[in-house]
Write a structure and sequence with these properties.
heterodimer; A: 247 residues; alpha/beta; Glycerol-3-phosphate (1)-acyltransferase; 7-stranded mixed β-sheet; 7 strands; B: 91 residues; mainly alpha; Non-ribosomal Peptide Synthetase Peptidyl Carrier Protein, Chain A; 3 helices; 51% helix; 0% strand; globular
Chain lengths: 247, 91
C-alpha cells in the first residue's frame, strides 16, 4: 500500500513538473535564441534537460528510489565521448542525467513517439538510429561529437529481460572507430524493477550508476567493430558481476 | 568442394575476422543470438566470405535468410555447385 501511495505521489509530481518544465524550456529556448548562437542555445537547452532529468531521478522519487552515481575516472575535458550503457529499465535514459556532460541520446524510435517529450528529444538533437540510413547516422553523430557533444547509447537496443546483458549492436562502435573519440562504458545496476518491464510501478530500491574508465582511440584502433563491441560489453558485464555480488 | 572443407574455411572466417572461439562454432549456432553479429556485422561477414571462397555473395538474396552457421555452410555449398567451385581459394 505504501509503495502504491509513493508511486501515485511520484507520477503526480512527474506530470506536474514535466508540464512546468516544458513551458519553461519553450520560453527559455525562444528568448535565449534571440541573443545567442544556435550552438550556445543548444548547449544551454541540453543542460536544462539534464537538470530536468536530475530532478526526476534524485528529487521526485524521494523515499522510494535512491540513485547513487560513481565516477571512476572523474575526467571531463570537454571532448565529445560515447557513453555505452547496459539497459534494463525504462528509467535508464533518465539516469544519464547524472553525467556532467553536454549529451544527446541515441534512441530507438519509441522515445520520439512520446507525446511532447518526443518533440523535445528531437529539438535537443537526439538521434533515432532506426529512422535514418547508417551513413546519415555516422555523419550527424560525427558532427555532434566533433562539436564536443557526447552521445549516450544503449547498444543492446532493447531492455534485457533478465540481469544477463543482450548482444550489442555495432553501430556506435563503428562510429567511434570512424570519429576516433573515447568510449566510456557505463554500468547500471538495480534499475531492473524501477520499473520492471511490462509495468510502470516503481519498486523501492537503490540504483547504482557507474562511469568506468574510458577507452581512448589508441586503445581500440586496431580492433574490428565486432571485437570492440564485445570488449566493451565484457568490461560492463564484468563490473556488473562484481557489484552485484558484493551489493 | 567437400562439405568438410566448407565448414573448416567458414569457421576460419569466424575465428579470424570475428575472434569467436571455435567451440562456439556449431551448425546450430544462431549467428545473431548466439554469436552476437548484427546486420552491419553481416556485411563484414559477407566480405570476409567472398575473400575466403573467391565468390560473389553481396547481391545474393539468399543471404537475408541466413540465421545459423549451418545455413552458411549450406549456402556456400549451393554457391559452389552453381559456380563449379572446386578449389578453395584465399586471396
Amino acid at each position: 500500500m505504501k509503495i502504491l501511495i509513493l508511486n501515485i505521489i511520484f507520477y503526480s509530481l512527474f506530470i506536474v513538473f514535466t508540464a512546468i518544465a516544458i513551458l519553461l524550456f519553450s520560453l527559455f529556448v525562444f528568448f535565449v535564441r534571440i541573443f545567442l548562437s544556435r550552438r550556445q542555445t543548444m548547449r544551454r537547452f541540453r543542460r536544462a534537460i539534464s537538470w530536468y532529468g536530475k530532478i526526476i531521478i534524485k528529487v521526485l522519487p524521494f523515499g522510494l528510489v535512491k540513485v547513487i552515481y560513481k565516477d571512476y575516472e572523474q575526467s571531463n575535458n570537454g571532448q565529445g565521448v560515447i557513453f555505452v550503457c547496459n539497459h534494463r529499465s525504462a528509467s535508464d535514459p533518465f539516469l544519464m542525467a547524472c553525467l556532467p556532460y553536454e549529451a544527446i541520446q541515441v534512441v530507438n524510435m519509441w522515445p520520439f513517439r512520446l507525446p511532447i517529450l518526443g518533440i523535445f528529444a528531437r529539438w535537443a538533437g537526439y538521434l533515432s538510429i532506426r529512422e535514418m540510413p547508417f551513413e546519415d547516422f555516422l555523419e550527424k553523430a560525427g558532427k555532434l561529437l566533433k562539436e564536443g557533444v557526447s552521445m549516450v547509447t544503449f547498444p543492446e537496443g532493447t531492455r534485457s529481460t533478465s540481469k544477463a546483458m543482450g548482444q550489442f549492436h555495432s553501430s556506435v562502435f563503428r562510429l567511434a572507430l570512424e570519429v576516433r573519440c573515447p568510449i566510456v562504458p557505463m554500468c547500471i545496476s538495480g534499475s531492473e524493477n524501477i520499473p520492471a518491464k511490462g509495468t510502470r510501478l516503481l519498486e523501492p530500491g537503490k540504483i547504482r550508476v557507474y562511469k568506468l574508465k574510458r577507452l581512448q582511440w589508441a586503445d581500440y584502433k586496431d580492433l574490428t567493430p565486432f571485437t570492440l563491441k564485445n570488449k566493451v560489453r565484457d568490461s560492463i558485464a564484468q563490473h556488473l558481476a562484481v557489484v552485484e555480488t558484493v551489493s | 568442394m567437400a562439405q568438410k572443407e566448407i565448414i573448416k574455411m567458414t569457421n576460419e572466417v569466424f575465428e579470424e575476422a570475428f575472434e569467436i572461439e571455435s567451440q562456439k562454432l556449431t551448425p546450430e549456432a544462431n549467428i545473431f543470438n548466439d554469436l552476437g553479429l548484427d546486420s552491419l556485422d553481416v556485411v563484414d561477414l559477407v566480405v570476409a566470405l567472398q575473400k575466403k571462397f573467391g565468390v560473389q555473395i553481396r547481391n545474393d538474396e539468399r543471404v537475408r535468410n541466413i540465421r545459423t552457421l549451418g545455413d552458411i555452410y549450406g549456402f556456400i555449398d549451393a554457391l559452389g555447385e552453381e559456380n563449379k567451385l572446386s578449389l578453395p581459394r584465399e586471396n
